[in-house]
Amino acid sequence: MRPKVLKIDPQKIDLELIKQAAEVISNRGLVAFPTETVYGLGANALEAKAVAGIFEAKSRPLDDPLIVHIAAREDLYELASCVPGAAEKLIDRFWPGPLTIVLKKKSIIPDIVTTGLETVAIRMPYNPVAQKFIATSGVPIAAPSANLFGRPSPTNANHVINDLEGKIDLVLDGGHADIGVESTVVEFVRDKIIVLRPGGTTVEDLRSIVGEVEVFTETGHWQRSPGRYPQHYSPKAKVKLVSDDPDQVERVLALARQEQKGGRRVGIMATGEHEVSYREFDVKVLGPREDARLCASRLFHILREFDEDEVDVIVAEAIGEQGLGLAVMNRLRKSAGPDFHIF
Ligand code: TXA
Ligand code: MG
């Protein structure tokens, strides 16, 4: 059954619609809602039964902890028992926004949310629909991305419906998600600040506020990193990444032709500058090379479009890892799976 879908204009929010969503939350239901990063699948974070519904709808393994979303900074201190100075500094600068902070949890948060960990991940989104929805619900909202486990995260309401039709109660459709990749997840271990997942807040921006920051690399140590499964964000097609070197175009073409010879349908995910070279294939443009922000905002949508085209292989151009490029490449490597090669 198609979930109820309520269209909301983020510039002019209809509070009656938000109240309907809050009502679903108070009845222990599931509401998909827009955030600036990707759509979330929300439930009352203080009700274990409601949160169990999230894992079931997504077919998410019960050892992958959820992020708790709040609408006001004060709410943080109800949920976390200890907030280090560096965390306060980052919050001062980046909340509300695409930054998730992992802190020691208070016992009010049920174990299912954190999968038994002593820490909880907390974030305050800036998307006005998300803010009104959380505030009106009057409780913290546990929400992973609103996709089936392992699929590319949803950046619009249709992506949510395609994955979760029949499994959730309501979708708040607030249009396209601005940023298009998930939040940056940061943890504090003794005096170290560690990025567990690169995302919407860039590492350069974090460093400008707190100095040294370590970035947890996904290769080799995937057990500790969030989205801890080596294959993630995956379209149905196999993703093959081609490194960002001067002969990238030639190598993309050689690989694509080889795949095609093997009888496979090939799609190419290209930067704008190289599009013309790939006209013989189904080519989709991520964005201009210099605009990692635009590339991030289009990434998951393009992966899903290739699924609709039923391609078998996506040959993807790697981009530079500055700014949001780091998050884009992290997602691309994960969508290529545990044994990815850079061609
Ligand atoms: O932008 C986002 O973060 C979106 C929107 C909806 O807010 N949410 C999102 O949730 O991406 P999800 O569940 O797809 O990813 C959250 C990641 C998980 O992979 C999980 O491993 C990590 O955050 N995480 C959650 N709690 C954690 C904890 N206590 N310690 C370390 N990592 C944690
Ligand atoms: Mg996710």
Question: What does this protein structure show overall?
Answer:
The chain has 343 residues and is of the alpha/beta class. It contains 11 helices and 16 strands. Helix 1 crosses helix 6 (128-137). It starts with a strand and ends in a 7-residue tail after the last helix. The strands form 2 sheets. Strands 1, 2, 3, 4, 5, 6, 7, 8, 9, 10, 11 and 12 form a 12-stranded mixed sheet that branches. It has a 4-stranded parallel sheet with strand order 13-16-14-15, with helices on both faces. Strand 10 (184-189) and strand 11 form a beta hairpin. The protein has 2 domains: 4-182, DHBP synthase; 238-336, Rossmann fold (3-Layer(aba) Sandwich). The structure holds threonylcarbamoyladenylate and magnesium ion (MG). Threonylcarbamoyladenylate binds next to strand 6 and strand 7.
